[in-house]
Amino acid sequence: MTNLFNYLPRNSPVHRLAGATKLSALLLLSFAGMTTFDTRLLAALAILSFAMFGVSKIRLRDVSAMLWFTFVFMVLNNLLIFVFEPEHGVSIYGARHEICRLVGDIYLTQEQLFYQLNVVLKYLAMIPLVILFVSTTDPSEFAASLNRIGVSYKVAYSVSLALRYIPDIQREYHDISLALQARGVEMTKKERFFKRLKNAATIIFPLIMTSMTRIETIANAMELRSFGKLKKRSWYAANPFKAADIAVIAASALVLLLSALLTLVNHGRYYNPFV
Question: Which of 6, 63, 195, 209 is most buried per CB count within 10 Å?
Fold first, then answer.
């Protein structure tokens, strides 16, 4: 089965970082990437994002489903940007260098291509970091991290349960699919696409029923243990800060500071090579 947005245990430096460290780095780097359109910084963040996959020993094929979804959404977003605002780059950079005429009064310009290159770099810089964070952070440790930065432990534990339940849903979907195929319901590529889609829809009802049963079991177990009675709780999976954690947070903070400095140098969020 394809792993979809769930924890992948590995023995790597990234996995050994505290959950609070990875969450803080993600927030700092994401804020730095989202608040700037400096091509140089976005390109560096994109390279860093994919380099971290090698450090974490997470293979790209392990998260291929999320990467493909991101790629399709990125292409669709860029296409819609050009269709609805083909002169947006010209208005941002205050220059116009035409490459060719497309249809009517619509021209392909260097400024528009450069702007949309920055949009692509934003995707390449931010989305891999999010996928990497989820893939390298144990849900229990993630809950402890949220609680450490001030989030209520009830909310943090709810997020942890949701993340833990994603692979369970995948596994149950796979098991129900195999059970239906054993009864003659065809779901392979031998069947027509829309017929397969209709057959796959028959999985939804038993999947909902098993999910409701599991939710009731977990809720009863938590109630029997008086979950939520106290204002604070301890965390078994919480990791203490080490030198590597402090270094990662400091480096992420420096990237955010660099983003702010580039905004001052560029007299705005956009790096303009056309002036």
Answer: 63
